[in-house]
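DATA SHEET
Item: assembly model
Revision: 1
Owner: S.N.
Input lines:
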Amino acid sequence: MAIESVDVVVTSPGRNFVTAVVTTSDGVVGLGDATLNGRELAVASYLRDHVAPTLLGRDESQIEWIWQYLYRSPYWRRGPVTMSAIAAIDMALWDIAAKKAGVPLYQLLGGASRSGLLSYAHASGTTVETLHEAIHGYLEQGFRAVRIQAGVPGLDQIYGVHDAAPGGTYEYEPAGRAAVGEAMRPTEETWDTAAYLRHLPSVFAAVREEFGGVLRLLHDGHHRMSPIEAARLARDLEPYDPFWLEDCTPGEDQSVLRLVRQHSTTPLAIGEVFNSVYDYQTLITERLIDYVRSSATHAGGITGLRQIMTFAGIYGIRSGFHGPTDVSPVGMAANLHLGLAIHNFGIQEYMPHSALTKTVFRTGYRFADGLLHPGDAPGLGVELDREEAAKHEYRPAYLPVNRLRDGSVHDW
Ligand code: EZ4
Ligand code: CO
């Protein structure tokens, strides 16, 4: 059979998503996630204008061949736009292959290596008290692991920190949005690393005091520290037994993680902005990290992320796939099928999509007792309602940006 059409659906049910819809000559439809937060239309154009025309008429069962063709042939390799576009096609082809076989996708990836995927939720609070309330809420839902982010005295707005909305929901969306058809400039936040480093260990101490030693506690540094600052925080958090410290530095310079390792045994996770196995080469071969943070959506799909995890597995490094709301339900399903199948799964981030998002994407994955499972419908197990999708027009949306107190630009 052959690829008959490749459509690109841009929809905005609460936030923007880009989805590739691949249809075969015998009428099987596969879905792939191409959502790149804040740069959605660049990937949509890459797919529509440069990828789709090259795939029509090709054998959709040649998943590896098509991955290599899309990776090697355009001459320009890697980068988030390219790799998100490749990811969407790759996921859609795996979706089709599993639907044709009549099995959930994880069965084609080697079958289940476990009964479910340990997941962590995002708990945060502007104060230690509201953070504690959020953690209690997640424990009631069954979570056994939480990422904790907290307000810092003197700073107004910080990545990942918010109190529960009236009614007690903890949903939040980091990207701000413009009205349909209007332009926008990202909001600006003020950052002070010294204040953060002084405060965060006391938050961990308070949470351990309240919740004891068993609950897994994670933290995201969101690329804001210098190498020596990261080494200090990793060392200062050690007494509180963190599950991991994420993105302690921007990851482009892989060698800086050597310095952090010299000073601390706090497990390290990095890679949500990486897009290829080569971004991990030094980190994996020198065992400078413990967890791979990529998602299938931004790292070349199931084929790209599986390459990374096979390489990582040789060095005993585990997965901690990125699962924010800007990875669509289709991308999330891809993460879950791969996570269930690989031996070196570690933990899965779980930031549930809004009820509005789920009117457009109908998901089959389920959560119980702290574990996620991709479900047993054939393929990825996600359906796209194109009529509902058409009701939600694209709106420009951007993550905030960060400035230091003197106005200079800092990593957000
Ligand atoms: O800020 O996904 O660990 N999760 C994160 C995310 C990222 C967004 C960026 O698009 O750091 O919330
Ligand atoms: Co992160």
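QC remark: The mean pLDDT is 97.
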